[in-house]
């Protein structure tokens, strides 16, 4: 974790309740017809406008230029390409069903690649505009194996000791395997054996350093906890008439007071979870106003659509400012000295103490809050973030955005149905809006202007 001082604890994410699935392909399953191709292309075409990518902050564009070696034009082009690829992958995930084995982006142009366990799906993926990859294991099986490893990490003193020596575990979708990173290879092998997963589906990597916490109302601004340690604001939020912000759980406990970067009284932690998750939220007093900005006077947050592996992502923190990189893996598990974190996202963005809790953003879409990592911003490193949507959902919070939806709404009045602004929807969720049913393509918090018929990058009629 990246909190100042470093005596504070690290960040953790909630583990999805995934059952252990046999690690095998589904080559004999029926293939979808080409019918999803048009829907996938339509979703991808609408995505840049739907998701407000043109509003990306100048500071974020500058950081992408510096860290990814892009021109300003290339940075904006890449953000738009990532938005299109995310919508396309969401549509294909629904179409491929049990054969789905994940997606990622490749190269400087963020070209989409989609994996499946069925050869018959390859033509559908290619026709939709992605590079098809045939693999042995569906994503559900790899997720199940990761969950089994996490359970083994919590089995008594021996399991916890091995997990501390094998602290990072994630699904590498491009390699179609589960990766265990360890400072002690023997401990990693014991953990894998204790989990009872297929050893052929696991790759053990030896690393020199274990992650640590990085401790130290715009996202990325500094705040102080109980007049001592320092962290960074994640994203401003509202809860009814209350204003505040989300941050990392290891930054403070419920009841801890906060002061702003100017040392003025600010508010207090209302709830905090760490370990198990790394999430918290602070309610501020009437002197503080939530804004849709991340450490910049221009370029607002427009939503919380989670981007896929390979997408560019930038972090703002009170110690090191803006730094960028790419998303390496979602659903990563990290064991810190304080406990195991599951469900965090692994990136190659650097961070340092004091950056904890700060904003991770992709284009104009809020991604999560800084948890912990290795390395520093002089030599580079790895940083993990707690996705923001589980924080919003868990505490009933509404992300502060600029209020600009993807375009004109479907018409006056409420046509009825189950869709509701403020709800966090996961990919695959179904709702009704009026007399039509829709399936969610990409996880996000719904907002006015993003009604299903008005946001084809997020919703598909079924």
What attributes characterize this protein structure?
globular, 462 residues, alpha+beta, 8-stranded antiparallel sheet, single chain, 22% helix
| Principal-axes shape call | globular
Distance between the termini: 42 Å
In DSSP terms (H or I, runs of 4 or more residues), the helix count works out at 8
Helicity range: 10-25%
Query: Which residues form runs of ≥5 with pLDDT under 50?
Result: 5-32, 407-412
Largest sheet: 8 strands, antiparallel
Count of β-strands: 26
Structural class, please? alpha+beta
Spatial order of the strands forming the largest sheet: 9-8-12-13-14-11-10-21
Describe the structure.
The protein has helices spanning 36-50, 58-68, 72-96, 122-128, 139-153, 156-165, 185-195, 388-395; strands at 100-106, 111-116, 131-134, 168-172, 177-182, 202-206, 212-213, 222-225, 229-232, 235-239, 242-247, 257-260, 265-273, 279-284, 312-317, 321-336, 339-347, 359-362, 365-376, 380-387, 398-399, 424-425, 430-433, 436-440, 444-445, 459-461. It has an eight-stranded antiparallel β-sheet with strand order 9-8-12-13-14-11-10-21, covered by helices on one side. The protein has a six-stranded antiparallel β-barrel with strand order 15-16-17-20-19-18, surrounded by five helices. The longest helix is centred in the first third of the chain and has 25 residues, at 72-96. It is of the alpha+beta class and 462 residues long. A hairpin with a 2-residue loop joins β10 (235-239) and β11.
